[in-house]
Amino acid sequence: MDSFVEYMIKKKPDTKAISLTILTIVIALFLFCIVFAYWEIMRYVSLVAWAVILWGSYSVISSILEIEYEFIITNNCLDIDKIVAKKKRIRLRSFDIKNFDKITQNLEEPSDITEFYGSSHKSQNLYALTYTDAGKKHKIIMEINDDMKKAILKVLPGSEIR
To answer: What distance in Å separates the CA atoms of residue 28 and residue 34, rounded to the nearest whole number?
Structure first.
């Protein structure tokens, strides 16, 4: 049976993203001051420099703050993509759902390697997908909706999510 489900979430800015944004603004202001100091000598070059600083700052800040995750289930394949500033798509992971050991809402389960793909750590729709690879236990924490759960349960009917 063919199935196709996709779900997209926007990542909420965390402390690291906010700190990098503030640092970018401070650096841009510093560069503005330097360019302003040479205004009398090179007027046109200063205007171009200001435009480059504005564009660069905007690009850096938008790539830090505008991150979305897209989860796509096609038949038994789960793809996780990261979309940066609605311009760049990066395929993060691709899994065969049959290879998962279990899917649960118990996020505290121990694992060797943990990856997080969600809007925030406080979200109510977080689920842990566990699998074993090369003797190491992996845990993928992701935020999914009801349609995603139904598609996963078709492949893994014995899972702990309901």
So the answer is: 10
Task: From 121, 82, 81, 77, select the one nearest 99 (Cα to Cα).
Answer: 77
Strand pairing report for 102-104 and 4-10: unpaired
Distance between CA atoms of residues 105 and 107, nearest Å: 6
Q: Using 50, 70 and 90 to split pLDDT, how confident is the model at 120?
A: confident
Beta strand 88-96 with 102-104 is unpaired
Torsion (CA) 17, 66, 8, 157 in degrees, nearest 10:
-20
Segment 42-59, tens digit of pLDDT? 778 888 888 999 999 999
Identify the sign of the CA torsion 12, 14, 17, 18. Answer: positive
**Residue with the two structure tokens 């779900």:** 7
Task: Convert the pLDDT of each residue in 123-155 to its tens digit.
Answer: 888 888 888 888 888 888 888 888 888 888 888
The helix (run of H) or strand (run of E) holding residue 11 is none
Half-sphere exposure of 88 (CA within 13 A, CB side): 10
Q: Domain locations in the chain? A: 15-65
Dist CA 85 CA 51 (whole Å): 20
